[in-house]
Amino acid sequence: MGWNKRGVTPLILTVLLLSFAVAVGVVVMNLGRAQVEGAAECAINVNLHFASISGKDQLCYDAAKKRISFTAENGVNIKVEGLIVNLIGTEKAETFELNEAKIIKAGTYVANIPFDTTTGGKIKQLKITPKVKPLEEEIICQEQALVLDEVKEC
Question: What is the pTM of this model?
Answer without folding.
Answer: 0.70
